[in-house]
Amino acid sequence: MKRKIIQQLKLWKDNPARKPLILLGARQVGKTWVMKHFGLTEFENVAYINCDVEPLAKELFAADYNIPRILLALQAITGTKIEAGKTLIVFDELQEVERGLHSLKYFQENAPEYHVMAAGSLLGITLGKGQSFPVGKVNVMHLYPMDFEEFLMAAGETDLCDLLHQPDWEILKILSLKYVDLLRQYYYVGGMPEVVDCFFQHQNLQEVRDKQTEILDAYRRDISKHTTATESIRIGQVLQSLPSQLARENKKFIYNVLKKGARATEYELAIQWLMDAGLVYKVERVNEAKMPLKFYVDMSSFKLFLLDCGLLSAMSETPPELLLVSENGMEESKGAFTENYLMSQLVATADTSVFYYSNNAKLEIDFLIQHGN
Q1: Which residues does 241 contact at the CB level (< 8 Å), separation at least 6?
Q2: What is the mean pLDDT of residues 175-190?
Q3: How would you label 12-31 residue by residue, b for 16+ Cβ within 10 Å and e otherwise?
Q4: If you average pLDDT over residues 93-103, what whole number do you get?
Q5: Of 36, 138, 148, 153, which residue is least crowded by CB atoms under 10 Å?
């Protein structure tokens, strides 16, 4: 399996001004695999510790932030000799350890020669709550579900992936049916690495759906575990409403879909939680299609998209034949999959904010971004 972020990590590794790296991303997007794979291919060894399951991790930062002591403790726990430039230190699920996030500041200040990476399924939630974030002392990268190009590479279609970058329109036209067939598969399977691997290993659509359901169940468990009962209900209502929200003609998020009389003030925190967890993407409306777009944002009007179109297919219980076989499968989904697909690709590949535009004349531009001037 190939992930584009590996190239960015190589640049980070070789940058003399690098800082400890925080890898942000939703549960199951492949953070642990990426860190371990990067460590095994680019370093002599990896000192990996999962702070959620390793009981001794709780003691690592309890006493102080003395880096030599912490390095010795890491060596004892992992059984790996830690050498600067030769060892990748990985703290997985770092948000589960008190003072763990803040320790990265001292790695940067007192031991910059070491390569340190940290990640966590709900690290974004921790940062959203402002818990002792080492501002200016860390680098941050985001990992998303596999985009369509990574899906093509997983399918063994590297040539089709390369052709998208040329692009030779005549050849692409000849191959269009093959691209459409693979795109239909991507709509159903999505880009969660475990699901993609399952699909290409076994070609079993029910097994794919079962894996997707497991991931959605894990998200729901995270919600109930890390929030109050009231917050959990509201977050769950927002998440479950996404298929019906996206099936609407203009896809603008409507609170009344959640429950009759629902108000923005009730659900603002729920939406923010889902955004911080990386589970949904928010697209705000602009009143004018002018630069800079952020000057014209109407914060009361927005759309929400799920992080992965495969999970959308599972959540909406879309029959596989509608996406994979039926000639009018796309029309029946009313564009929900197409827009969710496009949003997920924009987020994964374009480092820019995404908006939409509409006016009273019912003119709408589904997605609007700034590029250069």
Answers
A1: 257, 258
A2: 95
A3: bbeeeebbbbbbbbbbbbbb
A4: 88
A5: 36
